[in-house]
Hints:
The structure holds 2 protein chains of 2 kinds. By secondary structure, chain A is α+β, with helices and mostly antiparallel strands. Chain A has helices at residues 6-12, 14-81, 153-203, 220-269, 275-305, 318-336, 355-372, 428-438; strands at residues 88-93, 99-102, 104-106, 115-117, 122-123, 133-141, 144-151, 314-317, 339-344, 350-353, 378-385, 390-396, 442-447, 452-457. Chain A contains 8 helices and 14 strands. In chain A, strand 11 (378-385) and strand 12 (390-396) form a beta hairpin. By secondary structure, chain B is an alpha/beta fold. In chain B, helix 2 (33-42) packs parallel to helix 3 (59-68). Chain B is elongated, with a radius of gyration of 19 Å. The model of chain B has no long low-confidence stretch (mean pLDDT 89). Classes of the chains: A alpha+beta, B alpha/beta. The interface between A and B is large, with 47 and 37 residues.
Amino acid sequence: MAKTSVLQRLFRSTSVQLSLRFALLYALVSAVVFVAAYKLADYETTHWIHEQLEADAQALQQEFASNGLEGLLNGLKAYEAFNFENHRIYLLLDADGQRLAGNVLSLPLDLEVSYADWADILFAGPNDNEAFGYVLQGFDLGGNRLILGTSTYFLLELLEGLSGGLLLGFVFLVFIGLGAGIVVGQRTERRVREVSKTLQAVASGDLTARVALGQADSDDLARLSAEINRTIGQLQKLVESQKQITADIAHDLRTPMQRLRQRLEAITQSSDLPERIGLEIDTAIAAVEELIETFHALLRISQIEAGARKESFTAVNLATVLARLEDAFSAVAEENGQTLRFSVRPAPLTIAGDQQLLTQMMANILENALRHCPSPAHIDVTLSAGQEGPVFMVSDDGPGIPQAEREKVFRRFYRLDKSRTTPGNGLGLSLVQAIADLHAAEVSLSDNAPGLRVAVLFGARA
Amino acid sequence: MRVLVVEDDRETADYITSSLKAQGHVVDHCANGRDGFLNALDNDYDVMVFDRMLPELDGLTLIRSVRGAGIETPILFLSAMDGINDRVEGLQAGSDDYLVKPFSFHELSARLAALTRRPPLKTEETVLRVVGLEMNLIRRTVTRNGTLIDLQPREFRLLEYLMRNAGRVLTRTMLLEAVWDFHFDPKTNVVETHISRLRNKVDKPFEADLIHTVRGAGYSLHG
Lengths: 462, 223
C-alpha cells in the first residue's frame, strides 16, 4: 500500500476539494465585480467631475453677468484661492484666443476635447502632479472662452481604495473559505476513514467491528453509518449461526470417527488375525484416515476464513520458509525426475503472518506442481519484491489448467477431470485461497506457455 | 512407565488405557479435570495425557494448574481438530506436545515415549552413539564403524533426531514436525524420500540395517 501524507489525503477529501473550487469561483466572481466596479466608478466620477465643473462655470457666469469681466477675474481669483496643488486648472481666453487669466499658460487642445495629460499642459507655476490627467470642460462667456479642469487625482484615489478593499476582501475570504473547508474536510474525512476502517476490519474477518456513531450526528453520513452497522450485525448473525453448525457437526462427528479408528486399530492388535483380514483392516483404516484428513481440511479452511489465527500473527521471513521448502522438496523432485529450481531476489521479504499457515500454503502450491507435472518437468520457485509486497511464484511446464477452469479450481472439492485418478481431496487450492485471504494476499493462476504459473501477491489486497 | 490419562469420553479413555496397559505401562484414568488435578498432585507420573474439553476443569486450566503447582511432568495435550489455535494455546499453557483427535494409537504411544525420554537438561552431549554409528555434533561428522559418511545438512538433522530417539518409534508426523517444522500433512512423500536417501548412505554400504520401518506406525533407529 502506497503511503500518503496527511496533506495529500486531506486535499483528496471531498469537502476540501469543494472549498477549493469555491475559492476559485469566488476569485472569478471577484475579478468580474472588480472590473464592473472600476468601470462604474470611473464613469460616475467623471460624470460627477463634469457636474462640478458646470456648477463652477455657472457661478462664474453669474459673476460675469452681474459685474462684467472685472467681476469674472475677481471670481477666478477666488476660484484660484480654493485651488490646492493645481488639482484644478482654469484658463480664460478672449475672442482672439489671448490668455486673460488662468493658472496654466496654454492647453494643447481645442475646446471639444475634455481630457488632457499632465505633460501636455503648460502650467503657469510649478506643478509636480505628474501622475494625473485632467478632465476639462470649456464654456462660452460673452465671446470669451473659459476652460475649467479638475485633476483625476480623486478618481485614482477612489479606484485605488476600491481595488484595495476588494483585494483585501478576496484574500480574507479565500483564507476563511479554505480554512473552514479544511476543518470541515478533516471532520468528514475522519468519519469516512472510520467507516472504511470498520469495513476493512469486517472484510478481514472481524465481524464485531462497528462504525462509531457520535451522538450529535444525524446527517446523511450518520444515517449511512447506522445502516452499515445494521448490515454488519446481520452478517455477524449469519456467520455465527453457520459457524455454530460447523462446530456442531465437527463435534458430533469427531467422537464416532475416533471410535471407528480405535476399533479398527484394536482388531489389528490381536495376534491371531488371518493375513487377508489384516490387509482389509489396513485398507479400512486408510479410508478412515482419508475421511479424517478431508474433514480436517474442511474445518481448517472454515476456521481460517473466520480469521481465527489473526491474533497469533508474527513477523515471518518468507525467505526462511522458502529455504525450508527447498530442504524438504528438492529431494522429492529429484526422485521424480523433475528439475526444481529455487531463487530468492534480495528484497524485504518479511510480512506479518502465521508461519505455519504460510508454510502450508507455499508447500501446497509447490506440491501441486510436483504432483501434476510428469517428468522431466521444470519447476521454478521464486520469491521477489512486487509493487505492494513480496511475490511468491511457482511456474512449471506441465499440463497447466485450461483458462475456463482456472477460477473453478479454488472451489471446494473441485477437481479437474484428468486429476480425478490421482489421490487428493480437491481442497488444496481452497486452503491456499483461505490462507492467502487471511494474509491479504492475492492468488493468481496464469498460463506459463506451456504450463501453469501460480503467484501469491502479498499486500495486494491491503 | 506410569501414565495419567484425563479424558471424559469413556470409549476413548478405555481404548487408550487398555492399549497402554497392553504395552506394559501403569495407567491411572480420570474422567474430569478436578480429579485429574488431584491425581497429578498426589502421584509421581512419568507422563500425563490431558484432553482439551473436560468437565469441571477444562484441559487448558488443568495444564496451568498443574504447572502452577510446580509439577514438571511432561504433558501431552489432546485437542479437537476444530480448534486450530489449540496447539499454540496448549504449548503456551505449559504442555510439551500436542495431538489432534482423532489420532491413531501408534501416534499417541510414539509421542508419549518421546516425551518420557527427554532428559532433564543435563550436560549437553557432543557425541551420539548407536551401535557402530557415531555422530559428532560439534564437528558435524558421522561415521559408521569408523567409515566417514557424507551427509547433507537436512540428512544430518534427520539422522540426529533418529539417533536422539534411538530405540523409539518415530511417526511420519513427528519427523515432519521435528526436522522440517511442518505442521501439516504433505501430499508428496517427503519423509519416505529422505529416509530412503539416508538409508542409502547409512545402511546400504554396511552389513546390518539400523533404520527400521515399523509397519503402520513409522520408523525406528536401533541395532
